[in-house]
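Much of our argument rests on the idea that a fold can be written as discrete symbols. In the encoding step, the backbone of a single protein was reduced to a row of integers, each denoting a local shape. We regard such an encoding as a compact summary of how the chain folds. The record that follows shows the chain in one-letter code together with its fold in token form:
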Amino acid sequence: MTRHLTLPNQLTLLRLLLVPVIGYTLTASWSYHDQVSVAVYAGAAATDTIDGRIARSRQLVSELGKFLDPLVDKILVITVLAILVSENVVPFWVVVVIFSREFLITGIRMIAAGQGVVVGSTPWGKSKTVTQSLMIGLLILQRPYPVLSSLAFAFVILAVVATVASGIDYLWRYRRFVM
């Protein structure tokens, strides 16, 4: 087991452990809880970039990492969005679009993996990740800083467009697994 707990996998597990911390800070009522929540979320999101780079540069890519990394990403994003929906910060339909895309791509990845094919990330997938992270940060920060509301709304639209475009891109690239 320890050979699988490489530094990239440890970073992924750290990201998973930060999910309840973000959930707590998002729903807290003490001063600056939103700012702390964004800082913790940004740190968690940064580990997603760092773990992949380390894994590839040091040849530490593992089956555990390939499984855990996208799963933890989805847990993080869906948890935060579910809280934001419950607090009427983001419309429910946005979460449905994002969750549907994640469910679809996970299904494609599982079918492909069963046939020995690894479905890697694409430029659209990376754009989706960046716009969703910025959207989440802005949605949280607009609560204490209402001046950010228009920018947050713009990033909701950008994130939805990138999410749908990414889903279509994956469907097209890997259509042999869904048809």
